[in-house]
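Researcher: Here's the sequence for the chain we discussed earlier.
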Amino acid sequence: MMQYIRERATSKFAKFLFLGIIISFFGFGGSGFFSSINDSTVAKVNGEKISTGVLSNAYTNYLQNSGGVLPEGNDAKIVKKQVLNSLIQEIVMTQAAKKMGVVASDDEIRAAIKSLTFLQNADGQFDPNLYQIYLQQQGLTSAQWEDNLRQQLTLQLLVSAIGNSVIITESNLEDFAKVDREKRNIAILALPLEQFAQDINVTDKMITEYYEQNQSKYVTEPRVKLAYVTLPEVDTDNVSVTNEEIAERVHAMKAKQQSNETRSADQLIIQFSTEAEKEAAIATLNKVYDELTNGSLTFEDAKTQVTALSDGLFYETGVVKRSENMQSVDQALFEMAKDEQFAKPVLSENAVHLIHLLTVNDGSDISDDSMMADAKTALLKEKKEALNAENIQRFQEVAEKNSESLDLIAQEFNIEPIKTDWLNMTSKTGELADSNTFQVATQELVLTGGKNSEAYHTDNQEVRIVRVEAYEESRPLTLEEAKDEIQETLAAMETLKKGDQVITDMNEQLKAGKPLEDIAEAQNIKINRFDGVEIRTIVTTVQDQPELIEPLVKGFEVQKSTPATLNAIAANGMLFAVMVKDVIPGSLSEYTEEEQTQLKERLKSDMAQAETILFIQGLYEQSKIETYQVPFLAE
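Model: Thanks. This is the structure I predict for it:
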């Protein structure tokens, strides 16, 4: 089957497979949960429809699982299309699994549910009560949720089956080892380029011709001269607060803490469907309440009694915050006195609840002295921030009145403007390295309009106003201006050309059968020999000669030739001649048993992923997939 798929694989598949092999399908919220007969169709896969509602819900689930960051504009459209492609992939694979008879069994579904940590109690055991509460929160029946889970597990089984079909042979491992542990004998000759720089003659004609052919390379960088003033820090050493201000703030803090009060509790719950069941539940929990409050029953025993009932549950509320629109159970929780342990049973829509108060957090445990200290600190901070804000506001107001003069602003605040030399706007030198300064200095009114900038914060939070003193746009360099640079470039090119010719001559001698040793000796060049070097050990091999790293890497990029040939590479002011003298394939015997095991697992994983991609690609090629432009995709 895999061979059939490989033979029919085409690039059409690439249009759909954006996110790799997505088996989770956005958690337990895939396409199985959402449908509406009124939804517009966004895609069809072999006649099976994907509605806009399905896509919208899958998109929402994807955003929640990826941190809840909401993309905008074109980014949102891209993500929506990626989510749609994943839904298409899910359906294609589900259809294939059905045809192949692959399906997750009931035992596998049960095992998967029991393994979910959020459905386990403190002892790590599956808790049926937590399962029922979770289903209620999701608004699903167990059959609905388990059907969707079966679909996800079935797809995982399908992918696992493909992966498990991969067989890594000894030959596969040997082939990999031959390349991975390959060793090479390499010779490197180092020729200083400066020795070829003698007698280089760059004529005016050469410079003119090069300039005419490469004028676009020779332009000035846009540059600017700036002047700026930085707002001095305001003196806040004499800021103080009164006892009356502190007392008022403490009172406000206490009121806020009370309004933000949180509580946590346990609940014993009995659910009901009929009036008779409701009355029975109320009677049962009233009896439990009386026994708890008179001390004849412990809460643990009450919990055992209630959860033994067919409709009985135990529930931990977690932290609940006081709010205006609380449900009846939460209202009862916050009506309890702080020293009360239990509240009389209270009704919700379909259950009776007995509340066991655990914690109250209303700030009452904070001492007055601590609260007064916090109030004083906060007030001092606020007053200092207010002074700084007033200072900045005044700075801005003075700037607005004197938008064409930096000196008048400086005089108002008794400071001196700072002036820069020319700053390169492309490389953002000097003050332009500050991102905010660059941003305001390049605003049209500031850059060319002769206006000061508004007050702004620099990257290090200084408050500054900047003015452009002079500005030069990028322009083509004249021949005269570019002459020195061109002469240097041509001299380097001619130098390298002479060096390359030397290496070419050496290769001619090698072809004629002359030994490399004799050729190097005639040129008075030392040969750097590296025998049995591996690509992964290059850095440690030449740690005392780092300039040879690039030539050695070059030695692993070229093929061995017969007769052996010198390959030129210029780096670090040198011209290197690199020769591959021999290539020794690696062997599996060079790996330890542990390394061989890891290698086998790695290759199997890589090949399994490749086979899975080819499998899905083949499914796409054999499927009829239609997509439609709907408003949701364009929003």
